[in-house]
């Protein structure tokens, strides 16, 4: 494995950053999780745009142009000889003083790791997963915009730990007003009366790239899709449910908090979208 740090490649053991990096000290930085399929980087331009938007939102100036960053990502994939893999692109605030003042940091650190990801065992794509509602609420958008994909994931990690304690692989998070926001590392969709519904970014959802792809696939397949406020009641009484993410892709959800969703097995629209998504990434 060859890891890119600020323009140079290092072996896994030698890839190191400063203990004074504010990415480590404060979770001060932004990142992207990206997939390579068959040697091609999926939706790279969208990931780069989101990374730079996140950075702009936290006043972090990435020391490279978008084009250079895109070439660096493609270069790292080639350098590793990767066909199918997961790319973690990280930009931290850089090394600074022990205080949290970002102006003490010299230059942002750019890291590209090309590895593997297998978030969920394969069989779950056919049989679906059960999830739980976390007691941990999503940080309100009024406090931190969920569209910022920052290195500070403690809120989601606490919810993920709850999922694990409940014996589930993922948890759905509500916002402080009780509406569904998203899962700890995935967006969520339900199917009701033949139409897709998914929470709004203003209710705490990341503007997921897989979410967008599913919305496009739905439009192309004449399936209605709206972004709207959803409650736990909507989830429990949905005909179908699935989650989306770069790592997870499209994963059916067959149970939430001990309630079966629909018929308790992956629904027809979900299966259709899983198939369409597989074709899309292979294009
Ligand atoms: N929500 C959160 C909190 C995430 O971290 C992610 C990415 N793993 C997603 C949603 C899904 O976004 P994307 O489809 O862009 O990977």
Provide a concise account of the structure shown:
The protein is of the alpha+beta class. The chain folds into two domains: 2-116, Aminotransferase class 4, branched-chain amino acid transferase, N-terminal domain (D-amino Acid Aminotransferase, Chain A, domain 1), CATH 3.30.470.10; 122-282, D-amino Acid Aminotransferase, Chain A, domain 2 (Alpha-Beta Barrel), CATH 3.20.10.10.
What are the main properties of this structure?
nine-stranded mixed beta sheet; D-amino Acid Aminotransferase, Chain A, domain 1; alpha+beta; 283 residues; D-amino Acid Aminotransferase, Chain A, domain 2; 8 helices; single chain; six-stranded antiparallel beta sheet; binds 4'-deoxy-4'-aminopyridoxal-5'-phosphate
